[in-house]
Design brief:
41% helix; alpha+beta; Immunoglobulin-like; elongated; single chain; 278 residues; five-stranded mixed β-sheet
């Protein structure tokens, strides 16, 4: 019974992780309609950013941001702050919020410009990170946003870097635990339990690879791509564990138990002869 509950716990946390991250990504993608937004940073249109042409963010530098908003609704549009943020797996790793005061009348367009100092960016993130420039209204609800691919020139010892290193350490520990279990013949005789033993490390491989690709500036894996890749590696690891041969029975233990049984038989007290009756 304890082995079954242990196996359930092994599969439960990766599944919950995928569900939570998928839900977070879906929430982040929800955007209101009725407002058009255009923006440029240092004179470059951020709508055209890509892996080959990312928005370069240098720690402790100053960037110039210009935003134009068109209100296509029937109500006045109030803008209270603008956020430049970077997200990975639905988690925010850098964010810069600037308070503004702008009101856009129905059917009108207005623009605003400001300077943003990227203080502390080196300790927040590094590598290619997907982000967005978003404007918020008086109720702190997002009004409009533009996705942007950023090239953050931060440190590997930043929050994002330590996040990836922690994923790598946990993945290595998971495989080390499985390797010791194989060497000591401790794997379960049931196929599905052997598959679960490799499921979590397989999930870690997908997450770590996507992190390496981001830090090495190969590509920008969005949340859906992270989850898809991690799901594939987790499934492959599970199938490898499921198809692996079961542990061999310990013949020495069987022989010893047989000898002990025979010894116990020899130690039984001999039956005393009955006295002769007259």
């Amino acid at each position: 019974m304890s082995g079954g509950s242990h196996g359930i716990r092994r599969i439960l946390w990766p599944v919950l992780l995928l569900i939570v991250l998928g839900w977070t990504a879906a929430q982040a993608d929800a955007r209101p309609d009725g407002v058009d937004m255009a923006a440029n940073i240092d004179g470059h249109d951020i709508a055209g950013t890509s892996v080959d042409r990312p928005l370069r963010l240098v720690p402790d530098s100053t960037i110039r941001i210009a935003i134009e908003l068109t209100n296509n609704t029937s109500d006045p549009l109030e803008i209270r702050h603008v956020d430049l943020a970077g997200h990975v797996l639905g988690l925010g790793f850098f964010s810069y919020s600037t308070a503004v005061e702008l009101t856009v009348a129905p059917g009108k367009a207005e623009s605003l410009q400001y300077r943003l100092e990227l203080r502390g960016l080196a300790g927040q993130a590094t590598g290619l990170i997907g982000g967005e420039l978003a404007v918020y209204g008086g109720s702190d609800a997002p009004v409009a946003a533009i996705p942007v691919i950023t090239d953050v020139r931060g440190s590997l010892w930043s929050v994002y870097g330590l996040f990836g290193l922690a994923l790598a350490v946990l993945t290595v520990l998971g495989f080390a635990d499985t390797a010791f279990a194989i060497a000591r013949q401790r794997l379960s005789a049931e196929r599905w339990q052997r598959g679960l033993r490799l499921l979590a490390p397989g999930l870690g491989i997908g997450l770590v690879f996507a992190f390496i690709a981001s830090v090495a500036r190969w590509w920008v894996p969005d949340t859906g791509l992270w989850l898809a890749f991690a799901g594939v590696t987790a499934a492959v690891a599970f199938l490898l564990g499921y198809a692996s041969p079961p542990p061999e029975p310990d013949d020495d233990l069987d022989d010893d138990s047989g000898d002990l049984d025979e010894a116990e038989i020899h130690r039984l007290p001999a039956e005393e002869p009955k006295p002769a009756t007259e």
